[in-house]
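Good day; I would like, with your permission, to put a structural problem before you. What I wish to show you is a protein chain and, alongside it, a tokenised description of its three-dimensional fold. Please examine both parts with care and let me know of anything in them that strikes you as inconsistent. Thank you for your consideration; the sequence and its tokens are set out here:

***
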Amino acid sequence: MGAGPVGENIADRAVQGGLSVAIVECELVGGECSYWACMPTKALLRPAHALAAARRVPGAREAIIGDLDVDAAFAFRDGAAAQWDDSGQVGWLEGADITLVRGHGRLAGERTVEVERDGGRVTLTARHAVAVATGSVPVVPDVPGLATASPWTNREAISTSSVPTRLAVIGGGVVASEFATMFAALGSDVTVLVRGDGLLGSLEPFAGERVAAALTEAGADVRTGTSATEVVRAAATGPATLTLTDGSTLEVDEILVATGRRPTTDDIGLDTVGLESGQTLTTDDTLRVLGPDHAPIAWLYAVGDVNGRALLTHQGKYQARAAGDVIAARATGATVDDGPWGAHVATADHAAVPSVVFTDPEVATVGLTAERARAEHRPVRVVDYDLGWIAGATVLAEDYQGQARFVVDTERHVVLGVTFVGQDVAELLQAATVAVVGEVPLHRLWHAVPAYPTLGEIWLRLLETLGRDTATAPTS
């Protein structure tokens, strides 16, 4: 149920494992990521990133003779979203031998899904399993007048063909930060209303601080400890007035709500299998749904945003590979590899989730923050390093601004978490992920020689900061 990237990957792996698969989708095949999230948002952010990067390099800076071409940027976004045409994705399903059933699917008892389509109904009965991969939808806060003021969510914001003169962004997380960066670059007068103390509150504090500073420099107004208490909008296309917690008012042309997401489980028939409508579907590590008695339901799987483990496309696809493989293994009587880091589990969801915030500067992170590591009573040492001191940074940009942090387990001598903030740091993340997932000992990391001059030299500088004693294998 659900033909986004997660559902597609479950289906593909199950087919490769020898099963027949039907996939149910009521919107576009390819899902949120392909048309309203990952792909078009990153494409629309990219022109501004490239222009800003060029302006940081003498010689390239002088060659710039104009400003960002908004229409061309929108056209680039449209291409990344395949013009909101899913025929290519449908063709992929056909080539992968996956049956597409268009319509709204609902569970209708054990191993049964009813699909409502074109005024009729089709009943699908699975021999082995049903996987729920219906994703998530934005949450609109219960602020008087907000819901009736036609606020934007990520969908309206990324598919717009015009740039609002004045934009209020409600929220302080990843979506809020990326869209604030995007529309400030496109020419909007952006005001960000952050209820908490700062942006990106779940990450290392310096990440949100640097992003907020960059947004301010770009002309945005970032207001922390502030939220809307009322919204008034006389017409859907007219200006809106927000009353704020300090009693002041803010008039804007559009309001973007980016205050989180909830699982799309409120109309998929959960009640027919003893579950509560609208709930997050808690799972075991092989992605089987846990029932009211906390025991796994043998035939029902929940993968991606609906299980609340990690609301990231790449993490959902990781879960999907495990789920599709284990469904096939259980169906065919093959061995199930469900131990820690086994082929049929999503162990990385717990402490090794990589993510990138595509602001300018970028934020790339994997593993535990220092705060979380200490909350888990890990013996940690935190090492910070200015990325601008790296030789690779000096040839990448004039006055490169950035920061790196390692969170190290001082007893086990491994890296628990890494955070990078700066231009192009997303490309540093996979090496950090390998170090965290693989629990590569510090004394072995000394032998992973970084190419010179690249940003990757940060690994050597952090090891040097930790000290030469990390170059020798512990004797214990």
In short: The radius of gyration is 24 Å.
